[in-house]
Write a structure and sequence with these properties.
Length: about 80
Amino acid sequence: MRKLAGLRVTAGLTQLDVAKKLNVTQCAVSTWESGKYNPSLDKIVQLAKLYGVTEQEILMACTSAPTTIVSQSEVNKNG
């Protein structure tokens, strides 16, 4: 399990829970957790609050993922 997914599971949330709370698709959450894309900076802040961790911990959880940060609209275009 990737680090970002582990933080979500520790917080007792599903991908769908996170998607609804951050107003993104479940696919977006999945792409963050798989490392295909990193969440945007505003989503990193929201994830940290949601998971009860620091923004730094979210960034560290994403370090094994590519460093591309994209907007939600770009994720939606790419499926």
